[in-house]
Predict the structure.
Amino acid sequence: MAVSLGYWVLFFAFVIIMLALDLGVFHKGNHAPTMKSSLLWSAFWIAVAFIFSGIIWQTMGSTHALDFITAYLLEKSLSIDNLFIFILVFGFFNIDIRYQHRLLFWGVFGALIMRVLFIFGGAALLHRFVWLMYLFGIFLIITGVRMLFEKDEQQDLNDNRLIKLLRKFLPIKEGVTEPHFIVKENGKRYATQFLIALLFIEGTDLLFAVDSIPAVLAVTQNTFIVVTSNIFAIMGLRSLYFALSGILPMFRYIKYALAIILAFIGTKMIFNEGMKALGSTWHISNIVSLIVIVTLLIISIIASVIVGRVQERRKF
């Protein structure tokens, strides 16, 4: 179903207005977000996403509304990896919590632009080369299996290739305390740790998008649904980070749930495309996908909490 230009204009107008209000009104000053405000903002963005799904139901039909909810929850769950990166980066660069929201704002802004370009490019390729569905499916299965068996090791960003590359080509001023991306000293401009942190966040999001966008395109190839679900998931990511950053490391089994979800979505892509090529009506529906995603996330969170409590009791 083709979506008229008016829908696109209204949606992006809403996004631009919300971004302007976010930075210019609600978070104008540099301050540390409280747990309460972060939870409220997270709830707000989740509520807006589901209200939007209701609008899709009324204007485009129940099937597209289900596609949106499935794509939104899939993207939301896969973006949890970004939250761990935020924790790692802010700790490594010693970014004060008062300045983290502003840095994440620009990180999210850049991610929105990159993902929209990725989605339109990916959808166009799949429309022209249907066999790419098999390659995307295989890629997601391999990624999921690798994630499932990789060891949990503390990363040292000093050894990261992107960080080394940025430090090699950019003149950097260390120890800047104010949240400036560029500073001028003795007539020369220097990048700060804030800019390096921002570029690293953008770079890692680009890598995550290579996994998540093919996964969402397995749910639907309707670009309006894919773009809007991605944007809603990313827009609420900052508030979710501040709400969960303290307890996120406790959820040790979420990584395994995400790995299985990726492998499942990859299998779904291959199976559904294979059945379609054979002329069969058998397929893995988005309702099944939605149930699998939610179930795996709930099981991983419950298991993390139970094991964590058992280990705490053993300490005493």
Notes: The chain has a mean pLDDT of 82. Residues 97-128 form the longest helix (32 residues). The CA atoms of residues 111 and 205 lie 7 Å apart. The longest strand covers residues 182-185.
